[in-house]
Amino acid sequence: MRKVNQNGVMLLIVVVIFSIFFLTIIGRFMYIQVTGEVQSVDLIAYSENMRETQTNLPAERGKIYDRSGMVLADNRPVYNMYAILDETYTGNSSTSLHVEDINYTAEQLASVLDEDQSEIEERLAHGVEEDRYQIEFGSTGQSIPESVVEEIEELELPGIYFEQTLQRYYPNDLYASQIIGYTGHTGDEEDRQVRGAYGIELEFDEYLTGKDGFISYHQDSYGYQLRNADEVVQSPEDGHDIQLTLDQKIQSFLEDALTTVEETYDPERIMAGVMDPETGEILAMANRPTFNPNTRDNIENWYNDMVSSPFEPGSTMKIFTLAAAIEEGVYNGNDTFQSGQFKISDHGRSIHDHDPDGWGEITYDEGILRSSNVVMAELLWNRMGPETYLDYLEDFHLDRMTGVDLTGERIGTISYGGPWEQITTAYGQGSTFTPMQIMKAATALANDGEMVQPYVVSNVLEPETNEIVEQKEREVVGQPISPDTVTQVVDLLGQTVTEDEGTAGAFALDQYTTFGKTGTASIPDPETGLYMSGASNYVFSFVGMAPQDDPELLMFVAVKQPDIDYRYEGSDTTSYIYRTVMENSLHYLDVTPDQEQADAMNEIDLGDYKGASVDTVLNELEDAGVRVEVIGEGDQVEDIWPSSESQVLSNQRVLLKSDGEMTIPDLTGWTLRDVIALSRITGIELDYIGTGFVKDQNIEAGSTLSEDRRLVVELSNERNSDDDDEEEENESDSEESEEDALEDEEEQFE
To answer: Quick one: CATH architecture of 602-728?
Structure first.
């Protein structure tokens, strides 16, 4: 009986314990059911998070274009390589989906990637030892071109996979690299983001950078998307496109000219820029040394020297000293002064001309043409006064940064503490300025005294619609001088090019009038504080515009320490760049030549000849003294250059395009302007080398022309023997004047 009672008690205890345990579990389930939480974790949110997956949709970085729409910065697909090492990834697949043979895989990858096999093998082996599911290959496996990916895929290596991404790409390599800049990466390897690091890429990074999108959906435990699961798609927002004021053709002229001088004279630095002086648009800008933004290998110069490198400019500063004196009414070109030396007092130091003996007592005008330092000292100290001149330096904005939309702009220093520094500043020594400061100030000479703001970004565009988001327009930022002063300054600067006493004869253009000012600035020795000696230890520069009466282009060029034997040879470097770029660019822009010999010719009105008989038009124009070239073998005029109803000068070449098959004429002796006209009227692509007149062509005269062919011509400054005796005589005189000017070439600071 006692045993039965004991069994009953034990049974009761078991039932009670089980009931408590059961009620506890039921209670816990009820609690979870009601609250949806376990240990303060929201199970609903947790399950959603485990089931929900998200795939990133990368946005494309905005493109950068030149003014004509040529792409300067683009995006191209590249691939990042990774390897899956976990054999569970293969599962029930009939073929292996993970890396099985480490040695073979490393050997094959190394042969294609041209990398060390042992490094790849070590990375794979380390991943296996660490029981990693997958590994990446560091820099070796990043940004692999599509062609290389195709080679690797042909090897059919198990476990090797690729993820596509976009890489910034600069199709023109060195072209305007210090303006366009380049991109870099931020974040770690798992969250790498492209960001602007230099140039326009950095300055306008906020616009160029897009906003990534994503696809979000629910998946089962095997990673498959659930049916009828909510899917959220957020499309990426690509970055805005940037359109620059750069002109790809003028930029090419500039790049080629700088490369020629770099290879010939091996200078320490070259900096040059071309601007539309009426609007402030920068059409071209380049420096040497430069770099390839695609590789950025062995970069010698990180700076855009046009905005980042202030230096003592030399006599280009005399433009603004002269303008200030004329504006103040203290300049009389017929007044005379004693050239050679200038002293503030009997016991003071002397200011010297580049010829210390001077040229005797000469007029102020002649002093300007000869680029006399003494005449600048006279104007500042005895005519204007230092305080007045300082006001003009501020009016010309030479005391501040230009505000151009380029990264890295720096400002020079106006050294103006005492009389010596004040006077030397007047002729470009002691105080420092950037080329962009000088160019900005010089725009006043093209706009009746108004200065305009320089800029390089014209439009910010929506990537899909090309709608303009932001647009830069011409901005007048000051008027330091009056139109009358401009007229006098331009006239005197024009004479520095054309007169025998002028120092800029080497910068005369073949078919356009031009004006400007040379500079030959001494270079301070950082160790001694004194100026360096030797023929090459100068910064040779020139700032000029053309044509003279209505400037279309403003250009600054400076060459530092070229390899030359004599100081006067310094102008060979700068004048080559100026003449080559200016002449070619003005022809490219279809600017009508304005030299005096052209003005003396008769003007002839062209009629509307379209549809007329080729023979009739040919006879009429030839009788009027016009040189006519017929393009094609048809009987009727289909097109004409220059256009109908325009005026041409006698002896100017006119092109008639007939309705027949086009043939190439003999282009020997043609000007670049004429060849460009031929390209435009026929639609044929054109490339050209050199300046002056055509001496060779790649398509033989008489051959059939078609728009899918490319015409290449080589030009030389020597005329063909068939040209006018009178024109040859004029050129000979011009060459003699240029040689005389070289002998007189300019300035050495004592």
So the answer is: 2-Layer Sandwich (3.30)
- Name the nearest CA neighbour of 444 among 398, 476, 408, 416: 476
Are 519 and 314 contacting, i.e. CB atoms less than 8 angstroms apart? yes
Q: pTM of the prediction?
A: 0.75
The helix (H) or strand (E) run that includes residue 425 is: helix 419-426
Contacts of 161 (CB under 8 A, 6+ apart): 81, 82, 83, 84
Q: Is 731 a residue whose pLDDT tops 50? A: no
Does CATH place domain 55-221+230-243 in 3.90.1310.10? yes
List, for residues 355-389, the tens digit of each pLDDT value. Answer: 888 899 999 999 999 999 999 999 999 999 999 99
Instruction: Give Cα separations from 612 to 616, 622, 623, 657, 658 (angstroms).
Output: 7, 16, 17, 11, 10
> Is omega for the bond preceding 547 within 30 degrees of 0, making it cis?
yes
Tell me if 286 sits within 8 A of 205, measured CB to CB. no
The DSSP 8-state label assigned to residue 311 in this structure reads B
Enter the tokens of residue 111. 């042969």
Q: Which residue has the higher pLDDT, 17 or 264?
A: 264
Annotation marks residue 177 as catalytic: no
Which two structure tokens, joined as six digits, stand for 449?
A: 């005294």
pLDDT tens-digit series, residues 483-495: 999 999 999 999 9
| Options 252, 308, 309, 315, the catalytic residue | 315
Query: Where in the chain are the domains?
Result: 2-54, 55-221+230-243, 248-292+303-462+474-588, 602-728
Buried-state track 193-224, b at ≥16 Cβ within 10 A, e below 16 = ebbbbbbbbbbbbebbbbeebeeebbeeeeee
For residue 722, is pLDDT > 50?
Answer: no
- The amino acid that residue 672 corresponds to is L
**248-292+303-462+474-588 placed in CATH 3.30.70.270:** no
